[in-house]
Design brief:
- The chain is mainly α.
- 73% of the residues lie in helices and 0% in strands.
- The longest helix is centred in the C-terminal third of the chain and has 32 residues, at 209-240.
Length: 312
């Protein structure tokens, strides 16, 4: 049961990672596996082996989500952009109460000082401003078009292009670790998102397999290095300043909801209004029930309530 749950969560996170403006780290928070996921990203083979029941289904799901939805998500955003954004907005809204509880949790329920409360509020506002800044960059450099260039042919491989694809994968993967910041959005800003999204389905065509593979390899290497380095940074922050780290994440999460919410004016007609409402409720319900279905070991935590993956 837990294997299937983690596999499904991985698929949703993988799907989110191909959508500019949607953060895979945000959905890891939504599904209450963020801390365990960050702690599981390591080159320690003994640690990976000890936690294979968590790592294997999650990574399998993420890979499947990217492969399956790289094409489907373009179709959804092309044909049902408002309903899709309402669903993801619901996911985020459903996770906010859980993250707020993490943000204010203290060891043994001790009372926070006024100074600490002010600094936590400042961190939350910082996260909100950071996310809204990325939203502005999406409009300025991405044109707000999530599928721009998706129909273009694959470019010829060159060393400068490979370097740019590698750098975009590196930066994008670090962003994937941080809830609220979209790694695919950064790749969009750097101009490689259409190349990567077009190359993934091209892997399944014999005539374009090799061409797509050499374009994706630099991105894959960059993503791997970025995930490992980004996870170490987040683990350090959660250990040294858990409340403030969660506050920044809380602000990023709220900013994600603002960024994704398409507004009421985008809803035209009664039928569309019902569909959007159902998508919003479905997203909230999925976040809520995922939290309830999470294993009980989430209570084994650090000083801020973040679960650790056991060392071997």
């Amino acid at each position: 049961m837990d294997f299937i749950r983690l596999l499904a969560i991985g698929i949703v996170i993988g799907m989110a990672n191909v959508i500019p403006g949607v953060s895979g780290g945000t959905l890891a928070v939504v599904f209450n596996i963020y801390d365990k996921f960050v702690n599981a990203i390591t080159l320690n083979l003994k640690k990976l082996k000890a936690n294979w029941r968590f790592v294997l289904p999650l990574l399998t799901g993420m890979a499947s989500g990217v492969l399956i939805f790289s094409k489907l998500i373009t179709v959804l955003y092309t044909n049902f952009p408002v309903q899709t954004n309402y669903f993801f907005t619901g996911l985020i809204l459903g996770s906010i109460p859980m993250l707020f509880a993490y943000m204010k949790k203290t060891p043994d329920g001790e009372k926070m000082s006024a100074g600490k409360i002010i600094s936590i509020v400042f961190c939350a506002l910082l996260g909100l401003v950071l996310l809204l800044t990325f939203s502005y960059l999406e409009v300025q450099y991405g044109g707000g078009d999530k599928t721009a260039g998706m129909t273009a042919d694959l470019p010829e491989w060159t060393i400068p292009l490979a370097g740019r694809i590698f750098f975009a994968g590196l930066v994008g993967a670090v962003a994937m670790i941080v809830p609220g910041i979209s790694g695919s959005l950064l790749m969009l800003i750097l101009g490689v998102y259409p190349i990567v999204m077009k190359s993934i389905p091209a892997l399944f065509l014999p005539s374009t397999f090799f061409h797509a593979l050499i374009l994706l390899l630099p991105n894959g290497i960059g993503v791997l290095i970025g995930l490992l380095s980004g996870a170490q940074l987040v683990k350090y922050l959660l250990k040294k300043a858990p409340n403030h780290t969660y506050a920044v994440i809380f602000g990023l999460l709220c900013g994600s909801a603002v960024n994704l919410f398409p507004g009421f004016t985008a809803v035209t007609g009664a039928g569309m209004a019902v569909a959007c409402l159902l998508c919003l409720i479905g997203g909230v319900a999925m976040a809520y029930f995922s939290t309830k279905l999470a294993p009980e070991d989430k209570e084994e935590s650090t000083s801020a309530g973040s679960p650790e993956v056991p060392e071997v």
